[in-house]
Design brief:
With 379 residues, the protein is an alpha/beta fold. The chain contains 12 helices and 12 strands. It has 2 domains: 76 residues, GMP Synthetase, Chain A, domain 3 (2-Layer Sandwich), CATH 3.30.300; 253 residues, P-loop containing nucleotide triphosphate hydrolases (Rossmann fold, 3-Layer(aba) Sandwich). The strands form 2 sheets. Strands 4, 5, 6, 7, 8, 9, 10, 11 and 12 form a 9-stranded mixed beta sheet that branches. Bound molecules: adenosine-5'-diphosphate. The site of adenosine-5'-diphosphate has 19 residues, from α3, β10, β12 and α10.
Length: 379
Amino acid sequence: MSVTQQQVLDSLARIKSPRGVPLTNANVLSPISASDGKVFFSINVDAAEARAWESVRAEAEAAVRGIPSVTTVMVALTAERKPGAAPPPPQPSRGTPGVQPVHAHKPPPQGGAQSPMARQSEIPGVAAVIAVASGKGGVGKSTTALNLALGLRDLGLKVGLLDADIYGPSVPRLTGLHEKPELDGERKMIPLRRFGLAIMSIGFLVEEETAMIWRGPMVMSAVTQMLRDVAWGTLDVLVVDMPPGTGDAQLTLAQNVPLKGAVIVSTPQDLSLIDARRGLAMFKKVNVPVLGIVENMSYFQCPHCGTKSDIFGHGGARHEAEKLQVPFLGEIPLHMAIRATSDAGNPVVDSEPDGPHAAIYRAIAGQVRDQLKGVIAAA
Ligand code: ADP
């Protein structure tokens, strides 16, 4: 029997808010998503009271987990600061399992401000977290993130992939993985494993339709939980497939995830490059080094005769990278094999390791690895 919203509400009614009101009457609950044993909702509170709510969040999660038909629960605590209100007190260490960091709508640090990395704790066991980002959707960001992760694997590194593209998680499709992660003895989610990668996606936890309606603060909270409450083990690099765009949610993410660098994926079209420029500006704002730009769908390569055609005016991203003085990491052709292998859950670097596309991704991975060498060696 599948869990119902009413069962969830009944279990939450027994939990009290910090002011002693039943949680269901405290006017803080988001709509509850409950299907196939998977439950997701958020508790939205004022930032000034967020600390007092952390234990309530944990209680709520435990209560819902106690419903017999429930297999997965994710309860996010999100906080918005009221205009003019005092800033919330400093947050406890992000390393504490089950404690949710809080996102407040606050402008990012401006020039000269302390690096956001300075106030972030690392993920134990993970040497470098890097983001793969794009200014807009559909440019091949997720395909690049997965094949880059595989390229890094081929270089002998221990690699994880976190699909933080909460608006449209595509890693389940790209990897053919659809199982739900299990919990370990410390109640951390065990990432799924395929192609020698540790893989986690919001798509393993919630239905795609649910993911689509998430708002900025919920995105942050869920992504933080996937970073912190997952037993990643020892990794040299954790590749984060970011949500597309450069809006508030992305900025907050870039600011809060302890990133060692970002790779920007763009197509050669002007419009996409404008978006890529925004992406660059965003990472600059939060002092995350841009490892470089990848031009995806750079040229069309005929699958029959191998002839190249520059249907999108190839070379735009290389030129842009030069102008912006960031590394240009490489050009990936628009090719049937990349699309077909991706969409069948067999990414090209794994399924055609000796082919030309795998070589391109590995060359890009090599440049990324070289830039992270210091960090990986230090760990
Ligand atoms: P995004 O993450 O930017 O939304 P995806 O990685 O999901 O984009 O890719 C969108 C579509 O384009 C997918 O069907 C994917 O297989 C295809 N695709 C991505 N890169 C290439 C490429 N270089 N050649 C052919 N198809 C590609």
